[in-house]
Automatic annotation (TrEMBL):
The keyword Nucleotide-binding applies. Pathway: Sulfur metabolism; glutathione biosynthesis; glutathione from L-cysteine and L-glutamate: step 1/2. The lineage of its organism: Bacteria, Pseudomonadati, Pseudomonadota, Gammaproteobacteria, Pseudomonadales. Belongs to the glutamate--cysteine ligase type 1 family. Type 1 subfamily. GO terms for molecular function: glutamate-cysteine ligase activity. Coiled coil: none annotated. This is Glutamate--cysteine ligase. InterPro entries: Gln_synth/guanido_kin_cat_dom, Glu_cys_ligase, Glut_cys_ligase. It catalyses: L-cysteine + L-glutamate + ATP = gamma-L-glutamyl-L-cysteine + ADP + phosphate + H(+). Residues 20-383 form the Glutamate--cysteine ligase domain. Keywords: ATP-binding, Glutathione biosynthesis, Ligase, Nucleotide-binding. Its EC number is 6.3.2.2. Gene3D superfamilies: 3.30.590.20.
């Protein structure tokens, strides 16, 4: 281990953690996995969200994201990532048992899509909150197109134990309150994540190719792999590239991650600032709502970012209200592709590595990002998603060129002691092995999921859709071969039934008109003061 690689601050924090090892078993993890429903022909399922899965509005584990056909599975936040993945797998088994002749699409990039207007928008019933979700999605369709919204990903939620922050603050002589110190530490984690997240795209990017129809005839820089497939030879994650999509409205919106107040402030302004092209469209057409407002963002979650600071919200509370009043509770990593070779799109080895990576981001020095460094982070990220496996690829570090291979190796060396500490706390050597597995990918790009996807397509002479459908069938087979125990099946059935009853109750008890509801919802954000 090259000791000089570890900063003084990191060494000091590692020794504090070594003296409080049980704390590391209290980190919490949660996963959200998005997933298209497709027909046995590999086309978008245009059937409504199956009632047997419960209500998309009120089922806490099975919902829809943008489209009626885009499922989202949500695990509870648990201390043991193995339990989180078991839970995610159970959700998949239950859902597959209810899909009839439909399949869960295996990769992040979508199947062959119908005409733009035939992609169904998620519907959540007649309650005010259900209608709000629907109109928000109509606004997304208007602003960015429906095709873009059919891309799926994995969101990884992670928090460090609350008891750790006061220990660190006291050791470092901080004067902040517990809440402010904790929020500042999570914002510092996010700054480091911005610096290093290109590494995750190299290691776990799994979308080097896509269905040619996805581009809808727009100009692009992709190459033709076969008549139906576009790709870039060294791409890791086309999902996270610009793909010709530019949100002009969001272009000037780069929330500053220097402190929580400036972050929430920039989002609050975006939700309250009119954007002329949206103003021109208006909120209504032929008496129907078409978007929630005409501002840069309809709601704060519309801001596309690779990672978000989060806090569990109370009923009726908005995400920024929760952050402003109670501080940051966890982070949501949003840039992970679904691995089409894995039945649930992610595995325990990846989860263990992510924990060690996020610990490094949280505990290492994290100076403020200057404007120059912000731009450098963005261009490094874009270089890796488009050409991360290119031999000799150079990134920019502190304004100087460095090869991806060299920098990745150094980062893995810095992550190793955090993996060792996690192993000490949990027993075994699973975290260290997870780091070794990533080093193997740095040494040999052919081991990366993105290279594997292209290799399998070439080997089987398959288009992107054919490859993806083959994987989808394999995963369906895996789920069918090992059905849930009767008790677990029953638990999910009950969850589904109860959620339908809950939606019906919400609709029955609804008071007040939708227009007033939207007005109050808009006003709630303007009332926030930092």
């Amino acid at each position: 281990m090259k000791e000089y690689i570890l900063s003084e601050l990191l060494n000091s924090r590692l020794s504090l953690l070594s003296a409080n090892l049980p704390l590391l078993k209290q980190c919490l993890h949660g996963i959200e996995r998005e997933c298209l429903r497709v027909t046995d022909q590999g086309r978008l399922a245009q059937t409504p969200h199956p009632e047997t899965l419960g209500s998309a509005l009120t089922n806490e584990q099975i919902t829809t994201d943008y489209s009626e056909s885009l499922l989202e599975f949500i695990t509870p936040a648990l201390a043991d990532p193995a339990e989180v993945l078991d839970n995610l797998e159970e959700v998949h088994r239950f859902v597959q048992s209810k899909l009839g002749n439909e399949y869960l699409w295996s990769p992040s990039m979508p199947c062959a899509l119908p005409a733009e207007e035939d992609i169904p928008i998620g519907y959540y019933g007649t309650s005010n909150i259900g209608q709000l979700k629907y109109v928000y999605r109509k606004g997304l369709a208007l602003r960015y197109g429906r095709t873009m919204q059919c891309i799926a990903g994995i969101h990884y939620n992670f928090s460090l134990p609350e008891a750790l922050w006061p220990l660190l603050r006291d050791k470092e002589g901080g004067a902040d309150s517990d809440r402010d110190f904790q929020s500042a530490a999570y914002i510092a984690l996010i700054r480091n994540f911005r610096r290093y997240s290109w590494l995750l795209m190299y290691l776990f990017g799994a979308s080097p190719a896509l269905d040619a129809g996805f581009m809808r005839g727009r100009a692009h820089q992709l190459e033709q792999l076969d008549p139906d497939t576009l790709y870039l030879p060294y791409a890791t994650s086309l999902r996270m590239s610009d793909l010709g999509y530019q949100s002009n409205a969001q272009a000037g919106l780069t929330p500053c991650y220097n402190d929580l107040a400036s972050y929430t402030d920039s989002l609050r302004k975006a939700v309250g600032t009119p954007y002329p092209p949206y103003v021109e469209i208006g909120t209504h057409k032929d008496g129907e709502w078409v978007q929630l407002n005409t501002n840069i963002l309809q709601i704060e979650n519309e801001y596309y970012s690779n990672i978000r600071p989060k806090r569990v919200t109370y009923t009726g509370e908005r995400p920024i209200q929760a952050l402003a009043s109670r501080g940051v509770q966890y982070v949501e990593v949003r840039c992970l592709d679904i691995n089409p070779f894995l039945p649930v799109g992610i595995d325990l080895q990846q989860s263990r590595f992510l924990d060690a990576f996020l610990l490094l981001c949280a505990l290492d020095d994290s100076p403020q990002l200057s404007n120059g460094e912000c731009g450098q982070c963005t261009s490094n990220f874009l270089s890796v998603v488009k050409q991360g496996r290119k031999p000799g690829l150079e990134l920019q570090r502190n304004g100087q060129p460095v090869t991806l291979k060299e920098w990745a190796g150094e980062l893995l060396e810095r992550i190793a002691p955090l993996a060792a500490l996690l192993d000490q706390a949990n027993g075994g050597n699973a975290h260290a092995k997870a780091v070794d597995a990533q080093q193997a990918k740095v040494d040999d790009p052919e081991l990366t999921p993105s290279a594997q996807v292209l290799a399998r397509m070439t080997e089987h002479d398959e288009s992107f859709v054919e490859f993806s459908m083959r994987q989808s069938r394999l995963h369906a087979e895996t789920f069918r071969e090992q059905p849930l125990s009767p008790e677990r099946q029953q638990a999910f059935e009950t969850l589904a039934r109860d959620s339908l009853a809950e939606q019906a109750r919400l609709e029955q008890d609804e008071v007040g008109d939708f227009d007033l509801f939207v007005g109050a919802y808009q006003a709630s954000i303007l009332a926030i003061s930092n």
